[in-house]
Amino acid sequence: MRRALVVGNWKMNLDHVEAVHLTQQLAVILASRPAEHVDVVVAPPFVDLRSVTSVIEAEHSVLEVAAQHVNPRPAGAHTGEIAVPMLTRLRVRWVIVGHSERRTHYGMDDQVVAETARAAVAGGLRAIVCVGEDEDVRARGEHRGFVEAQVLAALSGLSAPEGDVVVAYEPIWAIGTGRTASVADVAEMTEVIRAAVAATGVRGVRVLYGGSVTADNAAELFAADVDGFLVGGASLRAESFAAIVAAGESCYAGGR
Ligand code: 13P
After folding, report:
1. What is the pTM of this model?
2. How many angstroms separate the CA atoms of 7 and 94, rounded?
3. The CATH fold of domain 4-252
4. Is the dihedral of CA 70, 74, 79, 82 positive or negative?
5. Of 20, 46, 57, 97, most Cβ neighbours within 10 A?
6. Is 79 exposed, middle or buried (0-12, 13-18, 19+ CB in 10 A)?
């Protein structure tokens, strides 16, 4: 049976003290309202990872941890960067690869995204590869081809165990804007993404949506044949994030 996946991307928010607090709150909520059909992952800033994994272990929580980025090289002279083995040693299981904020502001092109996904998976991490068009691409009606090309570039030549690769469709115009994509938009693009993924031969890939997902629209968006969400702003408060997880649980508990 398919399981949903809900990932909270904290971006550059919450220092390690705040991160401990939010993780404790989430652990308590998930213990009292178990989400048996949803994998729940949080992606804190690098400096919080150690504290967050410690809280999760102390609480015996089902929460899992992602990094927001990783450098594809194993070690060396890369000031300011973090390598895959540093993350796995901290018991980080996941990594976000090629978020649009990294593509746009930190020069991460398709080739670096592909290299990073390959290094992450080879090193034992599960990669959440982000794709999505900006407003101009959509206005020109080129979003289907644009996103298809991003998926093919990121996943081609990738050999990954089933379940180790996730693709998140995050249209840039919907990120942090309150302009959530419609169910029809998301359904159209998940179909494009699933077809592109199939062409790469990578199996067991879950497809997420991200962009102004909230507790209020999560249930409706699950109708768009997504396997879950990559949540930004609404993941910074325990109650709103837990409500999105609960929407996944009610959708999947019925045997989606
Ligand atoms: P928001 O949910 O704040 O729109 O952010 C989405 C996102 O970029 C998650 O990675």
Report:
1. 0.97
2. 10
3. TIM Barrel (3.20.20)
4. positive
5. 97
6. exposed
pLDDT at 215: 95
Atom of ligand 1 nearest to the CA of 214: 2
Copy the structure tokens of residue 174: 């919907």
**Tokens encoding 51:** 């504290």
For residue 253, the model assigns a pLDDT of 86
* Cα→Cα distances 31→56, 179, 253, Å: 11, 32, 17
Q: Which residue has the tokens 């994509």?
A: 181
The pLDDT score that the predictor gives to residue 84 is: 98
Q: With both helix axes pointing from N to C terminus, report the angle between 143-155 and 183-200 in degrees, rounded to the nearest 10.
A: 40
Please, are residues 186 and 147 in contact by the beta-carbon 8 Å criterion?
no
Residue nearest to atom 1 of ligand 1 (CA): 232
| pLDDT (0 to 100) of residue 1 | 60
What is the predicted pLDDT for the residue at 6? 98
Number of the ligand 1 atom closest to the C-alpha atom of 175: 4
Residues in contact with ligand 1 (CB, 6 Å cut-off): 9, 99, 170, 175-176, 210-213, 230-234
- Residue 251 vs residues 27, 93, 153, 232, 247: alpha-carbon distances, Å: 21, 25, 32, 21, 6
Q: Alpha-carbon dihedral of residues 65, 241, 184, 130, nearest 10 degrees? A: -20
Instruction: Report residue 8 as tokens.
Output: 């909270």
CA of 11 to the centre of ligand 1 (A): 9
Residues of the chain whose pLDDT is less than 50? none
Virtual torsion, Cα 130, 135, 138, 142, nearest 10 deg: -70
